Amino acid sequence: MSVIADIVIVVLLLLGAGFALIGSLGLVRLPSTMERLHGPTKATTLGLGALLVASVVYFRARFGVWTAHEALISLFLFITAPISANMIAKVHLHRLRTGAISEPDSIAGPPPRPGGDGEWATFEAPRRDTPASTANS
């Protein structure tokens, strides 16, 4: 292998390992569920992506072949991670709203409540006399 390929592989491995470590620490150390979602869905996804690119570069430089396995793994990961995080967040917000769970305030403070200055619309019924409420009548 060439020296340039070795340097690229080492940099990608260190970058990927760093992102994976930071994402894993975020998953363990952050206090609330919504904050814990960012660790595995953002940093760990980028870390694994860098590790897979390092694998592609290694096999190309060492054996002279392109491998599709890493590309398929990356594609599957980048498609499923945001969707699963979105579903987990929706369930968590629904359970908070119905009072099924209680959670300590996060580092960012308490979440905005409906009816206040910071309104949010997850699982909220349409209000009267709005386009969404009159569309089905």
Question: What is shown here, in short?
Answer:
It comes from Sphingomonas endophytica. This protein is mainly alpha-helical. The protein has one domain.
Secondary-structure blueprint of this entry?
Layout: H1 3-29, H2 33-36, H3 38-63, H4 69-98, H5 131-134
Helix pairs in contact: 1-3, 3-4
Structural notes for this entry:
This protein has 137 residues and is mainly α. It has one domain (3-125). The chain contains 5 helices and no strands. Keywords: Membrane, Transmembrane, Transmembrane helix. It comes from Sphingomonas endophytica.
Query: How many helices in DSSP terms?
Result: 5
Count of DSSP strands: 0
Q: Which geometry do the CA atoms define?
A: elongated
Q: How would a textbook summarize the main sheet?
A: none
How many structural domains in the coordinates? Answer: 1
Which series of helices and strands comes N to C? HHHHH
User: Kindly state the mean pLDDT as a whole number?
Assistant: 80
Q: So what's the oligomer here?
A: single chain
Unreliable runs: none
Alpha carbon gap, first and last residue: 69 Å
Range of strand content: under 5%
Structural class: mainly alpha
Radius of gyration: 21 Å
Helix content: 55-70%
